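User: Let's play a game. I give you a shape written as tokens, and you guess the letters that built it. Ready? Here's round one.
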């Protein structure tokens, strides 16, 4: 076998993608699996967006374009940010990327050197630590708990900052918890950040999926004076059910955006031309379809909570947004299956539920907290109810 780089040896596969792939493989074999591990909406992309993509293809949007992305799309992104947040940005402060993942990775490659620390609030999206490490940095985790709605102690955040700390990653609504940072938390955090030179990566990918149906907020909403070191990451994947289209963006100070564009120019060059044209329509048209999807997710969240309350030992917070619930299932640890295998953590429990109940969930250890599993409600209410019934029965068989 060829010699692998240390980078490749140390890289762990995405746990969420791995569970989703296993569930889909079982379904392909004819097994009746209910997949609660998916990180994407179950809705189809709205038809008017698909039609605009077909039109773009017919009009010849199939050639190379500038790395930054189409000017018309960057203007549309600025328009959407102004409509949703009230912030004014220019196209020069926007880089269109191949999904929000690339936006994050571009920024980390631009701002993180070997040995630099990046603060990550736990629980966290699975790819943050891996991307920090790939950039040569050191992820530094700040714990939180259900008791404080997964908002870490400001004192803990401040204590974690060292001379080697360069940035912090925020994500609200959160994957995996579905929680939204309060204004109080963001204000207190901003006061700490003002005393440092840390940059802030605000991952806003779920920002329009709020179950209070209010305008989205991020740290700039409470601390606009941090703008020269705040970077906004977003995309069309979750909001418009366009996960496979792979269009995201990075917004921030134009000097750093230019560096990120240079980095991207040496990898993917630019995001798909004709897909960018369709995204213009998504961002500038009526947001009625988005609001409709959000209402459905909110209703599903209620149904899921009602069903999970019927299962002894499971603790959780009702989601405020996104389409995830983070359930504490640690009451079932140290119990044994009928075959005598002991459940020693979230990996064991997730494997047991897939094998015994034919329900796929993601182990919480992938998000930094082994007490939990992540449950996605990007699935019909009927399937949610059936899945919870299966989970209840399977857990009752542990002793």
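Assistant: Ready! My guess for every position:
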């Amino acid at each position: 076998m060829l010699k692998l780089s240390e980078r490749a040896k140390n890289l762990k596969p995405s746990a969420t993608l791995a569970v989703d792939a296993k569930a889909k493989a079982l379904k392909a074999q004819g097994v009746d699996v209910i997949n609660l591990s998916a990180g994407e909406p179950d809705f189809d992309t709205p038809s008017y967006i698909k039609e605009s993509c077909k039109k773009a293809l017919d009009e010849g949007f199939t050639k190379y374009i500038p790395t930054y992305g189409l000017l018309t799309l960057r203007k549309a992104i600025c328009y959407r940010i102004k409509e949703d947040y009230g912030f004014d940005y220019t196209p020069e402060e926007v880089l269109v990327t191949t999904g929000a993942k690339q936006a994050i990775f571009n920024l980390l490659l631009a701002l993180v050197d070997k040995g630099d620390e990046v603060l990550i609030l736990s629980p966290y999206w699975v790819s943050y630590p891996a991307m920090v490490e790939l950039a040569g940095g050191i992820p530094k985790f700040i714990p939180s708990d259900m008791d404080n709605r997964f908002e870490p102690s400001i004192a803990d955040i401040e204590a974690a900052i060292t001379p080697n700390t360069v940035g912090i990653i925020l994500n609200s609504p959160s994957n995996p918890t579905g929680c939204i940072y309060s204004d109080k938390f963001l204000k207190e955090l901003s006061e700490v950040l003002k005393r440092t030179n840390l940059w802030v990566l605000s991952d806003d990918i779920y920002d329009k999926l709020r179950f209070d149906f209010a305008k989205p907020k991020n740290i700039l909403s409470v601390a606009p004076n941090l703008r020269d070191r705040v970077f906004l990451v977003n995309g069309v994947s979750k909001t418009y059910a366009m996960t496979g289209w792979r269009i995201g963006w990075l917004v921030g100070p134009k000097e750093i955006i230019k560096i990120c564009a240079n980095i991207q120019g040496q990898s993917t060059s630019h995001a798909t031309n004709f897909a960018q044209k369709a995204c213009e329509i998504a961002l500038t048209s009526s947001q009625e379809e988005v609001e409709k999807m959000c209402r459905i997710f909110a209703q599903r969240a209620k149904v899921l909570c009602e069903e999970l309350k019927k299962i002894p030992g499971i603790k959780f917070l009702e989601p405020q947004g996104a389409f995830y619930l983070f359930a504490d299932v640690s009451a079932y640890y140290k119990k044994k299956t009928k075959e005598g295998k002991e459940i020693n953590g979230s990996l064991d429990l997730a494997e047991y539920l897939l094998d015994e109940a034919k329900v796929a969930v993601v182990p919480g250890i992938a998000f930094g907290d082994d007490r939990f599993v992540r449950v996605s409600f990007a699935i019909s209410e009927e399937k949610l109810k059936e899945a919870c019934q299966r989970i209840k029965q399977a857990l009752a068989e542990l002793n």
